[in-house]
Automatic annotation (TrEMBL):
<feature type="binding site">
    <location>
        <position position="454"/>
    </location>
    <ligand>
        <name>Zn(2+) 1</name>
    </ligand>
</feature>
<feature type="binding site">
    <location>
        <position position="441"/>
    </location>
    <ligand>
        <name>Zn(2+) 2</name>
    </ligand>
</feature>
<comment type="function">
    <text>Initiates the restart of stalled replication forks, which reloads the replicative helicase on sites other than the origin of replication. Recognizes and binds to abandoned replication forks and remodels them to uncover a helicase loading site. Promotes assembly of the primosome at these replication forks.</text>
</comment>
<feature type="domain" description="Helicase ATP-binding">
    <location>
        <begin position="182"/>
        <end position="349"/>
    </location>
</feature>
<dbReference type="InterPro" id="IPR001650">
    <property type="entry name" value="Helicase_C-like"/>
</dbReference>
<keyword id="KW-0347">Helicase</keyword>
<keyword id="KW-0238">DNA-binding</keyword>
<keyword id="KW-0067">ATP-binding</keyword>
<keyword id="KW-0235">DNA replication</keyword>
<feature type="region of interest" description="Disordered">
    <location>
        <begin position="132"/>
        <end position="168"/>
    </location>
</feature>
<keyword id="KW-0639">Primosome</keyword>
<protein>
    <recommendedName>
        <fullName>Replication restart protein PriA</fullName>
        <ecNumber>5.6.2.4</ecNumber>
    </recommendedName>
</protein>
<dbReference type="Pfam" id="PF00270">
    <property type="entry name" value="DEAD"/>
</dbReference>
<dbReference type="InterPro" id="IPR027417">
    <property type="entry name" value="P-loop_NTPase"/>
</dbReference>
<feature type="binding site">
    <location>
        <position position="423"/>
    </location>
    <ligand>
        <name>Zn(2+) 2</name>
    </ligand>
</feature>
<dbReference type="InterPro" id="IPR005259">
    <property type="entry name" value="PriA"/>
</dbReference>
<keyword id="KW-0862">Zinc</keyword>
Amino acid sequence: MMQRLRVAVETPQYAGLARALDYACPHHLPAGTLVRVPLGQRNIPGIVWAGAPDQEAAEARPLASLKPVAEVMQALPPLPPVWCDLVDFTARYYQRAVGEVALSVLPPELRKLDNAGLDKRLRLLAKRSGWAMPEPEGSLPPRRKSAKVQSSRPGPAEPAPPPPLPTLQPEQAQVLATLADAFEQAQPPCHLLHGVTGSGKTEVYLRAAQHALDLGRQALVLVPEINLTPQLEARFAERFPGRRLVSLHSGLTPAQRLANWLTAHLGHADLVLGTRLAVFCPLPRLGLIVVDEEHDPSYKQQDGARYSARDLAVYRAWLEKVPVVLGSATPSLESWQHAQTGRYKLLTMAQRVGQGELPKVRIVDMNLQPQPAPGQPAAPLSEPLLTAVRARVERGEQSLLFLNRRGFAPVLSCTACGWKSGCPHCSAWRVFHKLDRTLRCHHCSFTERVPKACPDCGNLDIQPVGRGTERLEEQVAELLQGLERPGGGAVRVARIDADTTRLKGALEQQLAAVHDGSVDVLIGTQMVTKGHDFRRVTLVAAVNPDSALFTADFRAPERLFATLMQAAGRAGRDAAAAASSEMWIQTWSPTHPLFTALRQHDFARFAASQLQEREMAALPPFSHLALLRCEARDAAVAEGFLRQARDMAQALLTEQAADGQVTFYAPVPPHVAKVAGLERRQMLIEASTRPGLQRLLAAWMPQLPALRGQHKGLARWAMDVDPLSI
Ligand SMILES: Nc1ncnc2c1ncn2[C@@H]1O[C@H](COP(=O)(O)OP(=O)(O)OP(=O)(O)O)[C@@H](O)[C@H]1O
Ligand SMILES: [Zn+2]
């Protein structure tokens, strides 16, 4: 007999098809089953969704009128119920259609395959990896409770003997004892591991993962950036020979990503390391979630469903009743506040491994430095900093110079008429890249050759203004010319940023050169300040951190503090050299309290003062924000839409019983107002309670598509719940 099935399919946000669609099927299919269903002229992938049939839809579309499911993807076991719950929650919380979220977090390759194609892939993978094919009915391998069963399974490679384990530091041992308890609890708490840089957090993750594996479970480890996965992968692979380890991030080929996802979903992977998208990886034996550098903004997805993988990891751990560890030297103020109120369990590691000291912070007051002669570019490094770098080179130690701006110069300017290299499509400058002599817009990618003469007045003298990493590299190499390394040979300056690492394998190669000591001075963007365990770096310098001090975003200080602490943490990681390690800051605001706190390595004090300010201003975590963004060719259209949307919301609020206060701010342009020819505007909504905000959004968002017709030229809009930058 035909049955009614709800199927989640990917529909555009504005189609208004927020719910799953109904189809007919001759037999019952469990929720989570992958299917292909007809929609319009095509067959598209979908997922059977649980829940009571929609009364209204059932009346409007009787069973007999429903289209049948086109194909059941029997080759794959259904996605587990907790996975569906996580997707449901994500869709509800971040105000997106369930089908959109569900399908967008599957490997893209999976969505393309039919059952035969998938079956073929699975067989190939099973053969290559040496495991038995799943039963066609899709039964999962049973949850293994004992380690004995586990180890009898063939691993991917000939297991090498595991390396000897380091003796735990007392703080590490204490943290691990607490975590061991958590594994025993029916509903383990969320842990915030606040460990200073170099305190051995990774060792804690490794041991906790070991614990999960010993229980026959899988561990999921999230890192903020792709470029941190290879080194973490190497550390885990070395620690767990014979265990199956897969990574999940957007840098994999589609085929690799599918294979790794399948390995995890079928329960064959013991460890999954990945970036934010991995939080959705189905894991039938999940036993532990780790979120490394939990404060990192990369955990927030910036388009589609703008989810926070960190927050979802906490929710998922709660759903699956497994321990979760959020680790950071500079926790987000949201997590820190939860730890203060006892909602999260705070674990602290205040000591560096081997009693190593944290680097001494030196502030260079740029107001006191000699100014360049008129017409001359300013020197990138102040005299005292340059002297310190030279001394390191002569001692055979490494220095890391951090500048968060790539390219040669952020803008080119005509010395005669003042023309500047603006982007014709954006309200931004185009950056001068010297290597290929281009002007590139970092917002819309519009690229042109550098003009030979000023396009406005024909003057031949066009000069770079300001400095990016490419220029810093050139200038520093010049400043250090003639210097010799201890063993002989000229000083070597290298640069690592998004431009030098475009080619596959380039980053690994460049990092290897730093690790093996063939680089003396490393110049880089934020990319090099995170996570790396550089053993020979004894000096880190923030060349120009000031711009971040004075932006309008209320999170700017929190973010700058985290970045600088993390950068400082790259210095003196070898306990033997720790005492002479230094973090240098060149600034025009040397008395800024942020730098004072940094000097004392006092995160707690900094956090307390920030939280106090946030509380007074009713900002997160003391309020809850959503940001309605929209884009149109004409700014007035964008603003008109936002204003009408606001009126609608205010009308809804008077209908709803009050659940705290909700405040609407006026529509404003974001930091970069125009991108690729579209004007952007945004409206901030601030609510005193989370349920109050959620209730408003749930009633309001479905009404927005109806406004579209009244605002001709509106390109798109999106709601950003818990926005990270405003
Ligand atoms: N118990 C230990 N005994 C000896 N060495 C250890 C121990 N724990 C960690 N280490 C070593 O100390 C160094 C720093 O540890 P790790 O990279 O885990 O620090 P971290 O807290 O993750 O730092 P960051 O936050 O800066 O990334 C590593 O080289 C690691 O191998
Ligand atoms: Zn542009």
